[in-house]
Amino acid sequence: MSNRELKIFILFNFSKKDGGGSTFLKSLKKEIGSKGLLCKDPFDADIIIFNSHHEFYKLVKLKFKFPKKKFIHRMDGPLSSNRKHGNIFDKLIYQFNLYLADATIFQSQWSLSSNLNSGLKLVKKYKIIHNASDSTIFNDINKIYYQPSKKCKLISSSWSFHPNKGIDILNQLDNSLDFNKYEMVFIGNEKYKFKNIKNLGVMSSELLGKYLKSSDIYISTSKIEACSNSLIEAVSCGLPSITRNCSSNSEIVKDQRLLYNDMDELLSKLDKVRTSLNRENNYKYNFKSISTITNDYIDFSREIYEDINNSSVNYITFLKLVINIFLFKFLSKLRVTAILKFLI
C-alpha cells in the first residue's frame, strides 16, 4: 500500500484548549493532512487513532460500527502517577486498550515501563514514538542570542496546574534565584503566583515560540511526563534546557551537564550553562522533527493495517465497557470514585 492509499482518522476533540497532548496531536493532524492521508470521516479511514482516555463513548460506537477497521491507541500516563484515583482510571484505560485497540503507541520508554508496572497487559503490537513540535513555529530561525551585558533570560512553561508540573522548583527559584544576574518568565497556567518570576499566562503557540527564541535558557521543572512537549518545543528553538532528571525527561535530554536532581544542582548547572552561552557546546538531545515523527506514525499504521489479525469484541464486552465509563463518570461526580476498584 502506498502512502496516498492509507487513510487515517484521529479521534480527538480538537476544539479544546491547548495543552501538551492537544498541541502535538494538532501538529500530527496537520502533517498527516499535508501528505494527503487524513480523512475527516471515520467511515473513510483505514486506521483510527485514539488518544489516552479521551472520547471513550465515541470510541466504543466507532468500534461497534466499524469492527474491521484498525484502531491504534496512543497511550498516555500512567495516570496513577499524576492524579488521585488514577490507578482506577488506568484500569479502565487498560480495558479499552485490551479490547478495542489493535496496537499501541507509547510516547516514551518510561511511559511503556510505568504502564506495565501499573497493570497494563500488553498482548498486541506496540511502538515507542516520541512527540514532536510544529517545526514551522518551534525552530531556531531568527533566534536572539545571549547578550552578556544584560541579564540572562530564563523561561519555563506549563499549561497544567498540578504539583507534579514543578511548582516546588518554581517557588524555590522565585525565592533563591539571583535576580541581579537573571530574569525569568513563566508561560502557562495563570494560577501560578510568583513574587519575582513574571507569569505571562497562556498564549498561542506562535507567541510562545517567539518568547522561547528571545530567551537564553529553558528551565524544565516537571516531575512526571510521558514525553514533555514543552521541553521539546524549547530545545527545538535552540535553547539549552536545564531539565529535571526524572520520568521520561532524560530520554529527550541526554546530556548530564543539563540534568539536575535537586535545587542546589539546578543552580550550579544554571551558572555553568550561562557562562558558556554563545559557545559551541554540542549539548546532546534526542528529538525528531514533526515530519519524521509523522512518518513513524504512518509506517506503524501501515504495518498494523496490513496485519491480518483484527481485534474483535462481542456484545457483552461492549456493554461492559459502556457501563464502566458511565460508572466512572457518575461516581466521580459523587466523589466516591474509590468504589470503582471493586466494580471494574
Structural account:
This protein is 38% helix and 15% strand. It folds into two domains: 3-132 and 290-342, Rossmann fold (3-Layer(aba) Sandwich); 152-275, Glycogen Phosphorylase B (Rossmann fold, 3-Layer(aba) Sandwich), CATH 3.40.50.2000. Strands 8-7-6-9-10-11 form a six-stranded parallel sheet, sandwiched between helices. Strands 1-2-3-4-5 form a five-stranded parallel sheet, sandwiched between helices. The chain is of the alpha/beta class and 344 residues long. The model has no long low-confidence stretch (mean pLDDT 91). Helix 1 (20-34) packs across helix 10, helix 2 (56-65) packs antiparallel against helix 11 (315-333) and helix 3 packs antiparallel against helix 11. It has helices spanning 20-34, 56-65, 86-100, 109-117, 167-176, 205-213, 229-236, 249-252, 263-275, 290-306, 315-333, and strands at residues 8-11, 47-51, 70-75, 103-106, 125-128, 152-158, 182-188, 198-201, 217-220, 241-244, 259-260. The two termini are 40 Å apart.
